[in-house]
Amino acid sequence: MKATTISPLLYFSTFLLFVIPVYAEKPNAKQAANQVKQIIAHRGASSERPECTLTAIRRAIEVGATATEVDVRTSRDGELFILHDTTLDRTTNGKGPANLLTLIELQSLDAGAWFDDKFEGERIPSLIQAAKLCKGRIDLLLDLKEQGTDYDQHVVRVIRKHGDPKRTIVGIRSVAQAVRFRKLLPQARQLALIPRVDDIEAFAKAGVDTIRIWPRWIQDGTPIKRVRAVGKMLHLNGTKGEIDETRHLLQFQPDSLSSDDPGKLKATLSKLAGRK
After folding, report:
1. Hey, which bits of 125-274 come out as E strands?
2. Where are the domains of the chain?
3. pTM reported for the whole predicted model
4. Domain 8-272 adopts which CATH fold?
């Protein structure tokens, strides 16, 4: 049988086919990591501290997050407070719907011991307390859990008096809310927490700055293309800030990322970006 000779050109082409993608991934990841300008602490540094508390916000500041996210609700007596769930059961020693209590009643509850005994006595913060703590230190992302003109106006009054409108990011959940906040607090940036992929264009038309896309929506990359087509920045949610998860998210070239562990996410991005 005659031996088959592989030409040098074919050999070199085959070598490039397998080798180039491996090495090309590194500069792409580096570029994408450097593109991330906002590291958002999800409910504060919630992997290290009880979520949506002042100690979680302080920790987010300590580890170098550029923003901290909090969830804003209204108490029975019309005060704005910070809590993710509609009920008290999971993250406090209280029971039932949170909005049935006054702010004083809410702040009599323990919001830290469920996470760790060393945080016993941590309280549910008011929006005023959160805004004051963040002012001059970190951007404040408000996840607006309610709708309506009165609610929006109350949020704006608190931010204008106690916070910094220019360092506020409004987590918008409806087109009407986006339009209202563009008039009520024009200095603030807007992050659209869209309910469906098909809402991208409507929120973009309303003037939001950034659009959040859930990782489960981006299987084929189409939602990302739609966000870019309307000229908006892209936000993606992460969890632990670990390298495999972060590398996966970076392939979509987000402008901002969130994490329960913002310190780890910051370190991971620095490593991928070649900063250390």
Report:
1. 139-144, 168-172, 189-192, 210-213, 233-237, 256-259
2. 8-272
3. 0.89
4. TIM Barrel (3.20.20)
